[in-house]
Give the backbone structure.
Amino acid sequence: MRKFVEQFEKAVGSSPIVLSSHIEKHFGPSGETLYLRGSLRFIDSSMLEIAIFAAQDSHGIAIDKYRFQYMGSDGRMIFRYDNAPHYPDIASFPHHKHASDTVMPASMPAIKDLLNEISAVILRTKP
């Protein structure tokens, strides 16, 4: 579980678009569960809210619940990835992505991939 957190922190810390971060990590008593939540502020004042609940099992780390909500500097949602089970007809159920008024199939993105996606959004909207 600690290695998962280290990899997460390394990806965030090495990203040139992250201006600041506030991440809270809450480990279960045995160290085999983790609730990670927080936010990242980017160079254009946009923000990513993060919530991950993970558990270690015999196969490695299982992400039981997650939400990554990316918002513009005005607080308006640009996109969100989550696995809340409210779209059973989506091929990737329960995983999906919200973008504007659309919900589409998606898997949980790795933090590096998510930061790359956000970087592309920032570069597209840069004046």
Observations:
- The CA atoms of residues 46 and 72 lie 4 Å apart.
- The first helix runs from residue 2 to 13.
- The longest strand covers residues 60-71.
